[in-house]
Structures are given as structure tokens and as C-alpha cells.
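W.,

You were right to be curious about this one. When I first looked at the sequence I had no strong expectations either way, so I just let the prediction run and decided to look at it fresh. Below is the sequence, 236 residues in total, followed by the output.
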Amino acid sequence: MDTLLEIDDLQTAYGSSQVLFGVGFSMQAGAVATLLGRNGMGKTTTVRSIVGLTRPGAGSIRFLGERVDGMRPDRIARMGMAVVPEGRMIFATLSVQENLLAFAGNRCRSQEPWTLERVYHLFPRLKERARNMGNQLSGGEQQMLAIGRALMTNPHLLILDEATEGLAPLIREDIWHCLATLKAAGQSILVIDKYVQRLVALADHHTILERGRVVWRGDSATLAAQPDIWHRYIGV
């Protein structure tokens, strides 16, 4: 496999408050990777640094072999990186279909690109509500729409920040099923979530952050065999 994303010695601050202290990890094309850790440990700041929303103070970020630290977010997005942000951030006054079409594009030049019909097949609820405005959807439907919107860009890398946060159990199951389907299709995914047992079953590689530093890296088999790691760095 080719290396898709490579982060080395990433250091990021907000003003005088440093949040990341030498974060580093890599992921391969076609893999599912996670960022784990309690709230406030630097996961979202790492994502913001990767996608260009927060400029790192030091270190490097390579995507598809090219340095992207310091690039504008729109340029990074056009390279084929798509984010499902915490809070979803869909357009409340656009319909489901308009939200999806607003982001349509084949950024990875796929021979079988994501289309409206493919997204509707993945999320039948969105097809049922195609004419509904974004603010008329439930939280779970909004999350489906946010994922569908990201897929419509046909990204090389899909990033999900708190993919199942605040969702009802049945809707969470729909999201996990969606992610498993995407993995089986070869989609590269970076996930932030707190449900470690589900992530161990889904992902190939995990990185755990504690106070802005990497404290553990490894594969799912190793993490599954070390539940003490979960409790030390992830459990409430």
C-alpha cells in the first residue's frame, strides 16, 4: 500500500497556548485509522491542522506525498480530503439534495464516483427526505447528510470527527454499518470516536493522544489485547 497521510513532529498552538507537542503518525491508502483519547487531548486540533484550518507551528504534514502544512483549506480539500466535522455543519436552509449537489465533484478521479443515487442507496432515509430542508432533519439524519456530502466530493481521505456523538443507538448502528461498507469498498478513513470496541472491529491502526502527545500507537489486535490501555487513556 502507498502512504496516504504522513504526520511528523506536529506542533500546534492557539496563541500562547500550545496544544500539540510533536504528534506523529501515518496511514496507508485504503486503511481505516483512528485518533483516540479523552476530550481536550488534541484530537480535533490535529484534524484542524491536517485540513489547514489551524496552521501548525512546527512539523510536517504530507498528503499524497505532498507537503500540505501551510496550504489553504480549500486547496487541501481539492486534493481529495473531506471532513465530516463535529457538529455536522450542514446548510440548514438548503434541501437534502441541494446540500449533496453543492459539493459534488470527482476529486480522486474515480471510475465509479459517488453520485446522488449511490448516496441514497447508502442512506435510504436521505432519499425519503430529499426535499426536506437541513433544519427539518433529525440529528442522525443530519449526520448521514454530512457523510453523504463528504462522499459526493469523491475524496481520497474521509475524516470523521466524533462520527456518532449524541446519536441514538439505532442511528449509531447505521453509521457503523456505513463505515464498514466504505472500508470494504476501499475508502481511506480517519475516525475520531469514543466507542473503542466498535473502532477495534473497524479500524486497522490506532493512535492515542494524551495532553497533545502520542502515548500509544498500534493495530487493532494489539489494542484489543490491552484493555488497560483503554482505561488509562480513553475511559472516563
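Here's what jumped out at me. The longest helix spans residues 169-184. And, maybe more interesting for your project: The domain at 1-80+157-163+188-236 is CATH 3.40.50.300 (Rossmann fold).

Coffee later to discuss?

I.
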